[in-house]
Write a structure and sequence with these properties.
By secondary structure, the protein is an alpha/beta fold. The protein has 7 helices and 15 strands. Strand 14 (about 165) and strand 15 (about 170) form a beta hairpin. The protein is elongated and about 90 Å long.
Length: about 250
């Protein structure tokens, strides 16, 4: 049945969004939940080869919610789409159970062309994946279970299970400690705490090296100038000149 487990999806929204106060509020006021209703019906039609009708239902749902889910996509249970405006899920995308998508997320393909029709060209998300707002996951690869995609990240290659990806192009952050892994918790927008920028870190290292080299160069120049007396302090140069006058 197309609409089974709807109660689980409502409860998933209540569990992950502190702004949700009741089940009836989720049913009436949450576009992410509405988009899933339209998707379930459109997908049911799509699997029975009623392609045009499935696309029409999907298109109608996109007009009402601002969330574009292709009826050919495969979505697991308890998906939570928060806010949802601008979310795009492509035809061959697959989403596991208990995943979370924020606004502006794209699960898309690369180099679209007619000869790719019927081929896998969109990503596959494992279970418990969180994709932060504005993130782009592009290509037919796997995002492992429990992965976190930071806001505005652009992911172009496979993501290991439990990894946290940030940046453009996305790079993997250091893994959490074993103690943190033993106590997983929901992380809104994919990443919490300070995010170290690997590019900024490299630039800061280069700037430090430049400052060190500049200081060493100044030191060498002072030593060479001091050898011919041109860089001696003013008082020292005056003493030298007086000694020369007495000698004459």
């Amino acid at each position: 049945m197309a609409f089974k487990n709807l109660r689980d999806e409502i409860d998933a929204t209540l569990a992950r969004d502190p702004a949700a106060r009741s089940r009836i509020e989720v049913v009436l006021c949450y576009p992410g939940f509405h988009a899933l209703l339209y998707y379930r019906l459109a997908h049911w039609l799509w699997e029975r080869r009623w392609f045009l009708l499935g696309r029409f239902v999907s298109h109608f749902g996109r007009i009402l919610t601002g969330i574009d889910i292709h009826p050919g996509a495969r979505i697991g249970r308890r998906l939570f789409i928060d806010h949802g405006v601008g979310v795009v899920i492509g035809e061959t995308a697959e989403i596991g159970d208990d995943c979370t998508l924020y606004q502006g997320v794209t699960l898309g393909g690369t180099r679209p062309s007619q000869d790719q029709s019927g081929q896998k060209r969109h990503p596959t998300l494992g279970n418990n994946v969180i994709v932060g707002s504005g993130a782009q996951v592009l290509g037919p690869f796997k995002v492992g279970d429990g992965a976190r995609i930071g806001a505005a990240a652009v992911v172009l290659r496979e993501v290991p299970a439990g990894a946290t990806m940030v940046g453009n192009p996305a790079r993997q952050m250091p893994r959490r400690s074993a103690r943190d892994e033993a106590r997983p918790e929901f992380e809104p927008y994919g990443v919490t705490g300070e995010i170290p920028d690997p590019i900024a870190r490299a630039l800061n290292g280069l700037l430090g090296e430049v400052a060190t080299l500049r200081a060493r160069l100044d030191e060498v120049e002072r030593e060479r100038s001091g050898a011919d007396g041109s860089a001696l302090p003013l008082a020292a140069r005056q003493d030298c000149s007086c000694d020369g006058e007495r000698a004459s």
